[in-house]
From TrEMBL:
GO terms for cellular component: plasma membrane. The keyword Membrane applies. PANTHER family: ABC TRANSPORTER PERMEASE PROTEIN MG189-RELATED-RELATED, SN-GLYCEROL-3-PHOSPHATE TRANSPORT SYSTEM PERMEASE PROTEIN UGPE. This is Carbohydrate ABC transporter permease. Keywords: Cell membrane, Membrane, Transmembrane, Transmembrane helix, Transport. It comes from Brevibacillus nitrificans.
Length: 278
């Protein structure tokens, strides 16, 4: 008995140590970026993990002004906000239909829809590029927004379908008995009950579009169309890199994501948990 208790304690200690190591691996780069954002170039090169001798905002100001970050920030915000709106308008009704309605081919259509989850962006980026070129949407915010939405929709529909699956169908039937139509039932009853899933959907979509690097790298050419990840890349040259501006720009790009996650953390976890039940 004592041997079993000792083995249990040892396994718990090992698990905690493993979690601490993993936490350190995750936190250290973030800590390094935050410190580097307030250091001079000399301090970054010679004392990378020490506290700044004096906390200054030159790197943040330089990244925002000299690095044309205002334009990059606006582009990222436009693509992200418009993409979130479109994903919401498409994924929520689609998830509701797949979860609450029965019609021939329901399951087949759903599985075909989420087939996109198995396709990495690297496998389809070249065909997508030529398709956008044919449509005249290469190097445009409209084109990359549409592609970002397309990449986000398979998981978004999957998440919302599972969220609406958790809502009893009896509620929908009761609404019909009371005279509510399909759209009224969806807007007045189903959407409010699916709030945690919707919040998870919005946070997930925000994070993916805001931080995306691959699609802007391939589909955007003009610097005035760059998003924040591409803007950070412009601070790195062939012969030299301005790490102060890179750190400052990275910190600026992190702030919206951190704020969004901290505000909606509880609802995000609830929504993702609901989406993983089925």
């Amino acid at each position: 008995m004592r041997g079993q208790l000792s083995a249990g304690r040892n396994s718990q200690v090992f698990l905690w140590l493993l979690l601490v190591v993993l936490l350190g691996i995750i936190v250290m780069p973030i800590f390094w970026v935050i410190l580097g954002s307030f250091k001079t170039a000399f301090e970054i090169a010679n004392y990378p993990f020490s506290l700044p001798a004096s906390w200054n905002f030159d790197n943040l100001i330089g990244a925002w002004q000299l690095g044309n970050f205002k334009t990059y920030f606006f582009n990222s915000a436009f693509i992200t906000i418009v993409g979130m709106i479109i994903v919401f308008l498409v994924a929520c009704p689609a998830g509701y239909v797949f979860a609450q309605m029965t019609f021939p081919g329901n399951q087949i259509l759903f599985y075909l829809f989420i087939l996109g989850l198995s396709l990495p962006v690297q496998a389809i980026i070249i065909p997508v590029f030529f398709q956008l070129k044919t449509m005249g949407l290469v190097d445009s915010l409209t084109g990359i927004t549409l592609v970002s939405v397309g990449m986000a929709l398979p998981f978004s529909v999957f998440l919302m379908r599972n969220t609406f699956k958790d809502v009893p169908k009896e509620l929908r039937e009761s609404a019909y008995v009371d005279g509510a139509g399909e759209w009224r039932t969806y807007l007045k009853i189903m959407l409010p009950l699916a709030k945690p899933g919707i919040v998870a959907l919005m946070v997930f979509t925000f994070m993916n579009i805001w931080n995306d690097f691959m699609l802007p790298l391939v589909l955007l050419i003009s610097e005035d169309k760059y998003t924040i990840p591409l803007g950070l890349l412009s601070f790195q040259g062939n012969n030299a890199s301005n790490y102060g501006l890179i750190f400052g720009g990275t910190l600026i790009s992190m702030v919206p994501s951190v704020i969004v996650y901290l505000i909606f953390q509880r609802q995000f976890v609830e929504g993702m948990s609901a989406g993983s039940d089925k």
